[in-house]
Amino acid sequence: MPEQNWTEGWARPAMKSRKQHYFIDGQSLCKQWEYGGPYDECDHAEPNCAECGRQLAKLCKAIVEIDRALEQILDTECVPEGTR
Ligand SMILES: [Zn+2]
């Protein structure tokens, strides 16, 4: 089995945790858990932490917005002088 080095992903940090939480660098997005891995790919059969889901959605949205902003900056700076 190839070794996987996920630094983030869904995981169930402990037996007493009934839900899966989303971890980035060992810290769950809901700030309730610390866990060093391994992380699983999202298992939709498990009930996931609602707060982690919300934070993840927010994060994804923020990344998309940053990407868009970067594209706009690059677009402007790539226009040669005199053509504006
Ligand atoms: Zn959580």
Can you offer a commentary on this structure?
This protein has 84 residues and is an alpha+beta fold. The protein is 35% helix and 12% strand. It is built from one helix and three strands, in the order E-E-E-H. It has one helix at residues 50-78, and strands spanning 8-11, 21-24, 27-28. A three-stranded antiparallel beta sheet has the order 1-2-3, covered by helices on one side. The protein is elongated and about 65 Å long. The N and C termini lie far apart (55 Å). The relative contact order is 0.16. The model has no long low-confidence stretch (mean pLDDT 81). Zinc ion binds next to helix 1.
Entry summary:
This protein is α+β, with helices and mostly antiparallel strands and 84 residues long. It contains 1 helix and 3 strands; from the N terminus they run βββα. The protein has a 3-stranded antiparallel β-sheet, with helices on one face.
